[in-house]
Amino acid sequence: MTTVLLAEDVCMVRGAFLALFAREADIDVVADLGDSGEILPAARLHKPDVAVIDIDMPGQDDLSIIQEIHDELPGTRTLILTHHWRPTIVRRALDMRVDGFLVKCSPPEKLVSTVRDLAAGHRVIDADLAVSAWQAPIPPLTERQLEVLRLAAAGEGVPDIAARLNLSPGTIRNYLTSVTAKLNARTRMDAVRIAADAGWL
Questions:
Q1: What is the pLDDT of residues 102-143, one digit of tens each?
Q2: Is residue 65 located within the same domain as residue 148?
Q3: What is the number of structural domains in the chain?
Q4: 9, 26, 65, 91: which is deepest, by most CB within 10 A?
Q5: Distance of CA 47 to CAs 78, 155, 169, 174, 197, Å?
Q6: Residues whose CB falls within 8 Å of the CB of residue 100, separated by 6 or more in sequence, listed in order
Q7: Going by C-beta distance under 8 Å and a sequence separation of 6 or more, which residues neighbour residue 171?
Q8: Range of 181's domain?
Q9: How far apart are CA 20 and CA 160, in angstroms?
Q10: Given this model, what pLDDT does residue 85 score?
């Protein structure tokens, strides 16, 4: 039996995935979550064979959560689902050795077969996604700058970002100022828009 943790914030989509998995006698969904903040605690509790995670969920940086799963639960395989794939996201996922990456427009049976393949120890990354990711332009921002900008884009204020990253508020402001200048943006929100349009967030 393959145990699965499912994280998807859209209730109807999550319900469809649950119905899909319920038809499979060899797959057991041990946790279904609608909040990214619940992913890591549930993974620690259930230690699933496969964690299926929508990285478009609002709130925390889901790739960072996936990295924590890799660090703490090496026996759990990770499968990313996304609706709007972005080259930098795919590249980050490849760099951190995510086990699977699927776009949501894939056929339903592809999700089921991918979960089985991951549980069997295989890696499933769409070849076209991988090639496109490596051919895409590299963003002019450092990984830390991108991390700060992602958190700002998620609505977190300077004090919250500073606390999350164990940095001073002044350092976070300096990062945001540097990002705004590098992107020739007028404001912080303009920098978020530019980075999002370029697929860097």
A1: 888 889 999 999 999 999 999 998 776 776 666 666 778 888
A2: no
A3: 2
A4: 65
A5: 12, 30, 35, 39, 36
A6: 77, 78, 79, 80, 114, 117, 118, 123, 124, 125
A7: 162
A8: 143-197
A9: 38
A10: 66
